[in-house]
Here is the input.
Amino acid sequence: MKAHYENKDMTEQLPLFSVDDVTAASKDDEIDKRIQLISFRELVPEIKDTRYLTHAIFYYPAKFIPHVVRYALGAFTKAGDWVVDPFAGSGTVGVEAYLCKRNAFLLDLNPLLNYMIPLKVRTEKERLREDRLSQILDGLEKSRHHFTPAWSNIAYWYPPEMLETLSSYWGFIKNSERNAYTAIIESALLKVSKHFSYAEHRTPKLFRSKSKRKYVEELLRTDWVEKLKRMISSHSLETIRNLNDFATLTSHHNSCVEFKGGVDSSYYPFQQEFDALITSPPYLQAQEYIRTAKMELFWLGSDDEEIRGLSRLEIPYRKADRVIQTPTLETIRTELTRTDLIKLLDSYFCHTINALENSMNQLKVNATACIFIGNPLIDGIKVEIWRILMEYFTNNGYFFENLYEDRIKNRQLFGTRKNKNPDGMKSEFLLILRKGQ
Ligand SMILES: C[S@@+](CC[C@H](N)C(=O)[O-])C[C@H]1O[C@@H](n2cnc3c(N)ncnc32)[C@H](O)[C@@H]1O
Here is the structure.
């Protein structure tokens, strides 16, 4: 694995570069020298499938491809190091860190993180038994309990008979002893609870569609309970096998993956330092992660009030508490005519930078920050997020080391878009900054 990261072209370091050090004329040349067109998939060929091991147990919008994280871990950290991800999402950094014997500290506003990590990063070494799983699965049908989410408009999302059956299965699981087996079945229930609902299940985004309504109506005319049971079993079996493979592969690993979901990383009171930051901030125009995960959160026990509270902390609904100023951002502000979009931009950069900066303050001197981000269009104007972050951070004690540009192949975003490049993005960028003294 290491051989790929030692490829001279990729890791040969140019002298550290602070934007303030050079004249405006040579600045662009200096920056251009540090932009490298690469393909993370080709750079990390040992990862053949983005869904390998436990990465695909849960849907999550705008997940990292694991190749990016594996590359950054190999190039900028060593075994035993601590990595922080303030926008951890579904925890790709945690999974890859554990596989590579690094420690990880993960934060996310979305409480789903607390639920996903214990399953995706299995630290127990003993093998889970398929016969034990099957025994528990048999209990679903005999459930004498019910659990109905505290969701005021749940009837909008489910036909009554599907809600009744799902509620009894969830009631059984919630009243069973909590262990890896029940967690596996719960992850399968999350998937089927979306599939057997009016919500479009082929995308993470939560919405009803005519075609889904038609699909459900047709399902109801068939033996849908049998199909539901088969799906729960096959999801659960696939997951137990992935967990066992993960445990086998990491049988001698003992690193630590800590996580806190449901927190705003802008204000998190860290108690430790880190050797690297690896993260991918929310998208500029698609940041409704809590709304997207609503159905899952309700089934897991959240209520309207909790979800409303978290949604309010999402970037599009928060006012900027300071105005970020960088040359590129200033130019975009003057080009944009719509005041609502200027506000969106201000809010986006204020809160994204607040969260990044709070974590980056905990980096050791010389530690690397690896930030994976796109180049969206806003009202037809390109917003080079990497450049704005580079300008801000090089003005605040960091050096710009490199920029890797990767052409987008496929990243599952919020909807079924024909255009896989959201907001006109053609590439994604890994910005590498190094902390100064
Ligand atoms: C692009 S996603 C990260 C996906 C992640 N890299 C993965 O592989 O699953 C951005 C994440 O930022 C989180 N987020 C947005 N604002 C936040 C904040 N203020 N504090 C913590 N997390 C936040 C969202 O909930 C979302 O999960």
The longest strand covers residues 363-374. The CA atoms of residues 122 and 247 lie 6 Å apart. The domain at 2-123+256-291+305-316+348-435 is CATH 3.40.50.150 (Rossmann fold).
